């Protein structure tokens, strides 16, 4: 037998006078509570033994001496009854010559369990499991024989090595006792009022209270030892014995280490560590059965203790029960109290459950709540009924007590919501959880849980909220404002003393809190080498500049997010608000995704009422026009309308304008009192509509109220004005900063130059690479401490170390075991994912998922952002998500995406309705192309409906690839026809009616229709008929806008013929305006006029604005401005101006950007033909002032600018315009504009350029039969030749006579008169007489055009006629 205490020399005690014939004492080897132990040799056998002598010298009175002898006899009696391989054997007993008793035990050569734990700083789970199984096995035997140990501790357990396995023996039953069933009659004589009760750090509470020990006391000690083996530290620690007593006797449960909470071993430990012995497991045998079910191989990594206090006193000393340490001292301290009320709700659908099952269910949920509280350091007194009270700031004060309370509340909501679903599926039971938090100053009495007003107010708050809400007081909100988000409650709430207090609902964490110092690893990592950039950003934030936009650019892993995190943290702690969003690669075709995510969080935070009513509350706060904004937002967010709201009838472009204005007001309302910061991360993945919206915010004149901070990779090229933003480029870390970062990761230990050089050469100064590589080398022991310096492993296998950042991240993913599979599913969902989505898409159960998530968080691969609704997990970096995703095989990738797609269809209807492209992408990755195409087409429809044309075209290119994978040929053709037909309006809106993309789509549709008819594919006749019409219409547009006049006329007449035979008002009102323009181009002014007037007859303002979008030409406004042109040609000037102005009015009323710009264009052309440069300038400038934001980027704007350049006599843009139009083969109506450039050339004496330009224009017009401008081109060409030659030659005369005839042919009286006037003017310049025939013609035309008064042309006519 060996007692592990301080070794005592023989000088400290005289050797006892044991019969030397029996034993030879060798040395004293230890001293226990009641005896001294010697190593000795048994003479008869030569065996080494341990002899334990009873100590008398500490006791002077005879009574104590008799007591000790009686105890000695009892111990030997107990030991004689036990024969077990894991309990030390009693070999002999006797008395010395002086009648001092001794006992002889087998000598165990080995190390105490205490020393083993200390040497290894804790044991692995597997080793702990094996050793403590042997201890438990021994207790089963002892208890079955009616014997207790009463002083079980690591010092009384010897560990020896038998072959490859450790082997234990329990020592010192000197404290042993009989169980009640085995007590002898004289046992009561051994009990004293001040009894010896064991070692406080391992004694059960009932022992310390002086109560009789039971087998449950031994099991309690066993549980404490088990935890000490795992963590390397005693569970009960303190600076004095009083603190140990306090910890053991208070009613707070023993904290289970966080990694074990969800493991089966936790249940085993709770069954022995309950402070109430009545609730502990009944026997060692029962415990042994449960223990053997635990798989310790599933516990990996180091298990950290739940606290780290100083512990100077010896924890092995057996103590006498004293209570002299109690004190009446008290102090005032700020604490935060969290009250959680948890009920189990039974419905009519709930099966008949017995009361025990219901109570057990509720109890287990309350235990879960307690575990979560303990995890965040709460002090938890006994549960009162259905309410758990948690104290933060007691017994120890911490500067983040309120933060831990807030985090606990969110974790409670998240965890119990998950359990709620499980209970409902299993029993139809539902959990009802309400949480209240209050902070304030409390009076703290030693050894007594806080009581009073702070706690009472928290209890009162519980009764004023709905289930699944977290209510906080004003004081708590002020403490948590920098870290959490709140919504003010509009109801009066009473404190514990009856006064009214302000209260708030806790909504969720700010992202800065999700990455805060309460999270593992990365947030604690110092920011190295970005101090200058940080100060630049803060200087701009603190300045009074008008344009406060900052773009932080840098490659992946360079530290953009870390810099932004530090900025946000500083801004928030300074008392300002940060509004933030992130663009995601999986949503770059999802219009307005980042801004809608901000909005939806606000809507979700308002639990009361329907989605529409919550939307109303948000927009009322922003002072928005609800009747305008709510229907539009409901349309975008796929929320059904209700109440008095009606589906909006305004155009998509006008909807977009209202939407942008609403969203801007909403953002500004988030923080109305002070300036705020808007953070937009990862702009390289932004969708086009969001970019347009944020660009407007950047350009806004009132930007002093907010600072925009955005991040992007270098491939993002902003189109903002350079004066509107500051660009901060993050470069790789230099040598000095790299060394500093490595030192920070390695806790500032000394580092050899070899280690530094190795990391620097591979990591290229990229912070994420440096961190990941250093951690990997450390984990693999490729770098290690040698003489307090980190050195590089000799003969390091370079091939085992990835050479790229991506390879390194792949390696990190591979090291998380089975959690890698969960990471892969999460990566397939996206950079962000919810627990619900992950659980339903994964093959694992919830417990396994939770375990995997914990592993991924511990591995610093993901983090959790807690919210009341929809907790979000986020990959810490996009590259980590990419690494997890790319680690899947092709077949696994398909399977995972198929599961996610099925999950979305079955469980997430809001995604199907709001973001069908998300479902489509998963289906496509699963190679289910046909279904993917269907949902992809839905997404395109949604984008076009919302005027998100660029997103629609991006999706079009993607879906075309999916269609190639559709196996059924009929379905393939039909899908492509539908998609092509659907996307044409978007393509026309961006590229123009005759752009090459529109041509390609129409040609492809023609091919597909022919194939469908020839192969008799099973395509719906209705689909074919509708698409055939649209194809025919598309071909018409193609020929019309590419000046293929004959072909355009053929198709136009074909369409009109079909309409006559099969009347269709909707089609008619849609096609007539552009067919009218085609007739105009062909010189058939009367036909054109008739068609436009027909539109006015059949137009219905309630429905036909929408029809216009299908044909990308609003019927009424286009009829107005086409008539303006027709009447000008005919010389009806006043009528022409009237219709031009009416066209502008109507297009502005319906707010259709393309129509608005077209209307202004035709008015500008009217002014150009009147040679009125001032009027042209006024028209162009008014358009740019009023409509540049909405319509300034459409294809018509270039034409308007071209005419504007004529009025300013500029040629640069005009030259680019002509060159670009010709190169795109889209030169329809170019001959309207080329004469204006030629006239500017003439002003600048560039005669040759004017001639060359117009000769080419004339050639194209003749080839394409574009009759409407022949007269104009020939007349200005004649002017150019005359400017060059200064004389009327035959060529000039011929051109002018042809110009007059060409105008006459198409009844273009205005152009006829212009040509005739110029011809007459140069005759006079030549000092010749104007022929009478010509004069007569001038008078006739002048009289015919009665509206010519007050025009330059009229003045020129009058001058000629006077001469």
From TrEMBL:
Any idea which GO molecular function terms this record carries? adenylate cyclase activity; ATP binding; protein kinase activity
Its placement in the membrane is given as: Single-pass membrane protein
Which positions, given as ranges, span the membrane? Answer: none
Q: Which residues form the signal peptide?
A: none
Q: Which residue numbers delimit the Protein kinase domain?
A: 23-292
**Coiled-coil residue windows:** 1244-1298
The entry marks the following residues as binding ATP, namely 52
GO cellular component terms attached to this protein's record: cytoplasm; membrane
InterPro entries in alphabetical order:
AAA_16, Kinase-like_dom_sf, Nucleotide_cyclase, P-loop_NTPase, Prot_kinase_dom, Protein_kinase_ATP_BS, Ser/Thr_kinase_AS, TOMM_kin_cyc
What does the UniProt keyword field contain? ATP-binding, Coiled coil, Kinase, Nucleotide-binding, Transferase
Domain of life of the native organism = Bacteria
Q: Where in the cell is it found?
A: Membrane
Record's PANTHER family?
A: GUANYLATE CYCLASE DOMAIN-CONTAINING PROTEIN, TESTICULAR SOLUBLE ADENYLYL CYCLASE
**Protein name in the entry:** TOMM system kinase/cyclase fusion protein
The organism encoding this protein is Aquimarina algicola
